[in-house]
Design brief:
By secondary structure, the chain is an alpha+beta fold. It has ten helices and eight strands. The strands form two sheets. It has a four-stranded antiparallel β-sheet, covered by helices on one side. The protein has a four-stranded antiparallel β-sheet with strand order 5-6-7-8. Helix 1 runs parallel beside helix 6 and helix 2 crosses helix 5. It is globular and about 65 Å long.
Length: about 325
């Protein structure tokens, strides 16, 4: 999720376990500790654009990193508090730092991006896809409870906020199941055998979901709106042929840098690859698009066969024409 929400959740959890005299210190430590995991975004290379993709949400987001990260944050705050004359001891600081660090990986695993929660025991990216990467309502819940708790210097608001946040995630899980069931039913009506299927919430809400399933070498992309009751409503989208390295790039050497980068990008995207419908030299991650019914990928790598011995460039496209914005709003509202 976004970095602000990470901090708010970490601060709220730490605040919920504090006492009246330590409310502000606990919130501060928990807030900062929850941000540490995203320091992996600083791992970059000027020559290898895919390096940051491999390390983002990797070891710093794993469960095994929590005590290590908490120790690093605790040592820093111990020095800061000592200079400020704050008597808070190491054990209490470590407790609040541990609680803050503990929220990062788990919260990101609730999104659709994928998190190496169990690194180094497995390289699997865990993505429960029950909450958007950016969700203002979830952020409001934890943010409001944190601020009320700070003002009153009580733990009850934080605990209520955590309960409501957990309930919100449960609603996301239920909506995910409903959207998945709806698209399974739609695939069957079309006579398709869904070999692979994923549904993920669209930005900022739990009503409209993006669905991608593969059948017979084709990706079928749809939007699914699941309201308060009844079956999900399907908004049929576009189709795109699944990328096949041996079929689409038969002449590419298996020892080339481009071949290796395609394999790395394939691992990152969980195999959901297709050529950009408007740019056949851009290999995109089909899971993400600005419009939930579109095959135009949010990001991809450039297939430059003339320079196959250098790393592929990574490109993003977050532009959304007014027409697509109107389409998104109409689907979100459940319009015909």
């Amino acid at each position: 999720m976004d970095i602000l929400t990470h901090g708010l959740l970490g601060g709220t959890l730490a605040q919920s376990c504090s006492n009246k005299n330590e409310t502000r210190d606990a919130t501060t430590v928990g807030f900062i500790a929850a941000l540490l995991a995203d320091a992996d975004a600083l791992i970059r290379s000027t020559t290898d654009p895919l390096l940051t993709l491999e390390y983002h949400r990797q070891f710093t987001h794993s469960l095994i990193f929590i005590p290590v990260g908490a120790l690093l944050v605790s040592l820093v705050f111990l020095l800061v508090f000592k200079k400020l004359g704050n008597p808070l001891g190491f054990r209490r600081i470590y407790l609040y730092a541990f609680l803050g660090c503990a929220t990062s990986g788990a919260l990101d695993a609730c999104t659709s991006y994928g998190t190496h929660l169990l690194w180094p025991f497995t390289d699997e990216r865990i993505a429960w896809s029950i909450v958007p990467i950016f969700d203002p309502l979830f952020s409001l819940i934890v943010g409001a409870s944190l601020l009320v708790g700070l003002r009153l210097r009580k733990t009850l608001p934080a605990r209520i906020g955590l309960f409501l946040a957990a309930a919100y995630l449960c609603v996301g899980w239920l909506q995910h199941q409903r959207a998945e069931n709806a698209i399974h039913a739609a695939a069957q009506l079309r006579g398709h055998q869904a070999e692979r299927l994923t549904v993920k919430p669209t930005m900022g809400n739990l009503l409209l979901w993006r669905s991608i399933y593969r059948s017979g070498g084709i990706y079928y992309i749809d939007a699914v709106r699941v309201g308060a009751g009844g079956a999900g409503r399907i908004y049929p989208g576009t189709t795109v042929r699944a990328f096949d390295l041996r079929h689409d790039l038969p002449a590419l050497s298996t020892t080339s840098m481009l071949y290796e980068d395609i394999r790395r990008f394939e691992l990152f995207s969980s195999g959901y690859l297709a050529l950009h419908p408007g740019d056949l030299h851009l290999l995109g991650d089909v899971r993400y698009a600005m419009l939930p019914t579109s095959a135009r990928p949010l990001w991809g790598i450039r297939l430059d066969l003339q320079h196959a011995e250098v790393h592929a460039s990574f490109e993003t496209s977050r532009q959304m024409p007014r027409q697509e914005i109107d389409q998104f709003i109409a689907m979100l509202r459940g319009a015909n």
